């Protein structure tokens, strides 16, 4: 008898505790040795995931519970990585939908649930973080029912089982007061209500690739689900390419998952999630099938990208100083490599060979790609993010988002004002009478660019901001651009405290003293709407009287730390962010002050346009 299998994905809004729950499941299934040191959130294994405390890539693992093998896919909760979730759902037969018992369902809960319901995957509802002092499980459960109804769930789907959970402590309850001290009720529920995989091990081979991995020894590895049939090591099979061709290949090695390890296998059967070597050139979405009698699966389709940014080679005077990979050939090769594993990304050529248009799901997704590239040694420049605008039946349409803002009551006014200037339309306001309110807006995606940092400033860091792509809507017309200008270095040199002291009253500085600058580099934000050229290298005139005491009296305001994401949010159409392994600089596209066009007429026009609604 083959081992019984369950395949599940854990899906939720960001930070509701998915990866923490996987930790607890791994621990309680006895995967780790008794004295083994295991880091927290062990599935968040890449550097950026650990630094930011979020999951970026979907990953799978496997545990064994009372003789049943449970394949688990941990997915990211941030909406920019929704493509990972869509793909994960193709691998599984059911989902654990986690909802924070205090926060309740949020936009990404809606998104992932909608996808799971559409795929007809049975859900187990897991109300997590019941240990939070502000947990309100009963009310949150009501909100979840409302959400199901709102999503047109069938009677059957509404009849979902509920498990209450403290993932951090590794405890699950079928009823809140059942005294459980382990995850057993959750495991039992998975066995009871998630169907075992269908698919006949004797039928024609059908395997779909949902992820890729690399091994130095084995080359490309396909992470895939066997839908039907049996795959043996050493057999000749066909790769059904996305373009319809069948490409023969020989399977060199097969693996199944066990905890964080992989076990070699001689054969894998219908229903399992496996890793396959000997499939050079295979891509996500393609299938592996019988060579003589091919029966390819439908390729994976996922939501279209909504945001685009131009990536181009570094043309600043400092180009090539800090990075290893700087040519357009390097840039192209790296982007092509990214496409293999990052299915929700697209890359298009532009009019020039030095620049590429990269399309993705959001600013964070692209910022993570840029951050990864700079750590690998790349230098590049990126332009202002733009929202994809399509033409449908002769009408221009743009993506529209559902935006949820949770903030203290005292900031309602200022939030509404910010949203108004970005064409946000308030749909709903709920006051939980806890001192905080939750507001829902409908807003063109364009209005979200730079919104996060602005709202965090407006609300002194207290706002929670979540958004979700809702659909496409008629193009809403021009939107206000950044209403401030830049302070721009007018010559190369090294920044000097004395000069900064003179400039800082004009606006806010991005650089402190002792920083090498070039003509056209942005050194701060002007308080006024036009750009201002400044000499940040100016030394104090030497007088005969040495007045070091006067120098010490210079009080410099600390510069604003422009992280990659802040820089991307800040720049305007005529500016770039220059990214190298060591630095993030902002610059005007046209470096020469004499050749640079003025921006203010344009800004005025756009500000006027946004008032006309
Ligand atoms: N109090 C409490 N905190 C929890 C519980 N489960 C998770 N957390 C905390 O919630 C935070 C987020 O947990 P993660 O497991 O990273 O959440 P996630 O859903 O994987 O997040 P993303 O993958 O980024 O979407 C961490 O600080 C956890 O320690 C719980 O049951 N109770
Ligand atoms: Mg996670």
List the helices and strands and how they pair.
Elements lengths: L4 E8 L5 H11 L18 H6 L6 E7 L2 E7 L7 H8 L4 E7 L6 H12 L4 E6 L8 H14 L4 H4 L3 E5 L4 E3 L10 H10 L12 E10 L3 E10 L1 E3 L3 E5 L5 E5 L2 E6 L2 E5 L1 E3 L3 E5 L9 E3 L17 E6 L15 H14 L4 E4 L5 E6 L2 H13 L4 E3 L3 E2 L2 E3 L2 E14 L3 H9 L4 E7 L4 E9 L6 H8 L5 E11 L11 E4 L3 E2 L2 H7 L3 E3 L6 E2 L3 E6 L5 E3 L13 H5 L11 H7 L4 E5 L4 E5 L11 H12 L2
Parallel strand pairs: 1-3, 1-4, 4-5, 5-6, 28-33
Antiparallel strand pairs: 2-3, 6-7, 8-9, 8-17, 9-16, 10-15, 11-12, 11-17, 13-14, 13-16, 18-20, 18-21, 18-22, 19-20, 21-34, 23-24, 24-26, 24-27, 25-26, 28-32, 29-31, 30-32, 32-35, 34-35
Helix pairs in contact: 3-4, 9-14
Textual characterization of the structure:
The chain is of the alpha+beta class and 613 residues long. It has 15 helices and 35 strands. The strands form six sheets. Strands 18, 19, 20, 21, 22, 28, 30, 32, 33, 34 and 35 form an eleven-stranded mixed sheet that branches. Helix 3 (82-89) packs parallel to helix 4 (107-118) and helix 9 (363-375) packs across helix 14. 39% of the residues are buried. The mean pLDDT is 89. Bound molecules: guanosine-5'-triphosphate and magnesium ion.
């Amino acid at each position: 008898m083959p081992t019984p299998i369950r395949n599940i994905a854990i899906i939720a809004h960001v930070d509701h505790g998915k990866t923490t729950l996987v930790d607890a499941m791994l621990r309680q299934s006895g995967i780790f040795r008794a004295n083994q040191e295991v880091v927290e959130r062990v599935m968040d294994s890449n550097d950026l995931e650990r630094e930011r405390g979020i999951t970026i890539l979907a990953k799978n693992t496997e545990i064994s519970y009372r003789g049943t093998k449970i394949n688990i896919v941990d997915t990211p909760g941030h909406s920019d990585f929704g493509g990972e979730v869509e793909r994960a759902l193709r691998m599984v037969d059911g989902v654990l939908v986690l909802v924070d018992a205090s926060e309740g369902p949020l936009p990404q809960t809606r998104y992932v649930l909608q996808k799971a319901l559409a795929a007809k995957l049975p859900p187990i509802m897991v109300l997590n973080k019941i240990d939070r002092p502000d947990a309100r499980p009963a009310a949150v459960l009501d909100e979840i029912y409302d959400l199901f109804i709102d999503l047109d769930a069938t009677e059957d789907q509404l009849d979902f089982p509920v498990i209450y959970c403290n993932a951090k402590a590794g405890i699950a309850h079928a009823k809140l007061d059942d005294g459980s001290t382990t995850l057993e009720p959750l495991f039992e529920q998975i066995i009871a209500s998630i169907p075992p995989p269908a698919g006949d091990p004797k039928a024609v081979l059908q395997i779909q690739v949902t992820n890729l991995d690399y091994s130095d020894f084995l080359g490309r590895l396909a992470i895939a689900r066997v839908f039907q049939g049996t795959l043996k090591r050493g057999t000749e099979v066909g790769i059904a390419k996305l373009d319809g061709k069948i490409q023969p290949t020989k399977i060199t090695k097969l693996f199944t998952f066990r905890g964080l390890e992989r076990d070699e296998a001689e054969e894998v059967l219908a229903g399992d999630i496996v890793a396959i070597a000997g499939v050079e050139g295979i891509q996500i979405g393609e299938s592996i099938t019988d060579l003589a009698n091919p029966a390819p699966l439908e390729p994976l389709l996922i939501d279209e990208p909504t945001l685009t940014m131009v990536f181009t080679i570094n043309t600043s005077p400092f180009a090539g100083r800090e990075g290893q990979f700087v040519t357009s050939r390097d840039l192209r090769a790296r982007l092509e490599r990214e496409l293999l594993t990052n299915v929700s990304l697209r890359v298009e050529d532009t009019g020039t060979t030095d620049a590429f248009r990269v399309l993705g799901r959001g600013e964070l997704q692209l910022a993570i790609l840029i951050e990864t590239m700079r750590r690998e040694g790349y230098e590049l420049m990126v332009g202002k993010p733009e929202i994809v605008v399509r033409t449908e039946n002769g009408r221009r349409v743009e993506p529209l988002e559902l935006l949820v803002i949770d903030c203290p009551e005292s900031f309602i006014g200022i939030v509404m004002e910010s949203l108004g200037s970005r064409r946000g339309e308030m749909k709903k306001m709920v006051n939980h009478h806890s001192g905080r309110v939750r507001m829902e807006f409908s807003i063109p995606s364009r209005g979200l660019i730079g919104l996060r940092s602005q709202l965090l400033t407006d609300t002194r860091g207290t706002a929670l901001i979540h958004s979700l792509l809702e659909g496409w809507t008629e193009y809403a017309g021009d939107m206000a651009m950044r209403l401030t200008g830049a302070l721009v270095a007018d010559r190369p040199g090294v920044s000097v405290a004395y000069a900064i002291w003179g400039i800082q009253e004009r606006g806010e500085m991005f650089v402190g003293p002792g920083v090498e600058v070039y003509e056209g580099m942005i050194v701060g934000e002007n308080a006024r709407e036009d750009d201002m050229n400044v000499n940040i290298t100016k030394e104090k005139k030497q007088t005969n009287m040495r007045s070091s005491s006067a120098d010490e009296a210079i009080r410099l305001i600390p510069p604003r730390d422009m992280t990659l994401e802040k820089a991307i949010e800040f720049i305007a159409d005529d500016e770039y962010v220059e990214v190298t392994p060591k630095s993030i600089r902002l610059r005007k596209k046209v470096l020469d002050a004499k050749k640079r066009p003025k921006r203010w007429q344009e800004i005025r026009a756009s500000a006027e346009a946004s008032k006309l609604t």
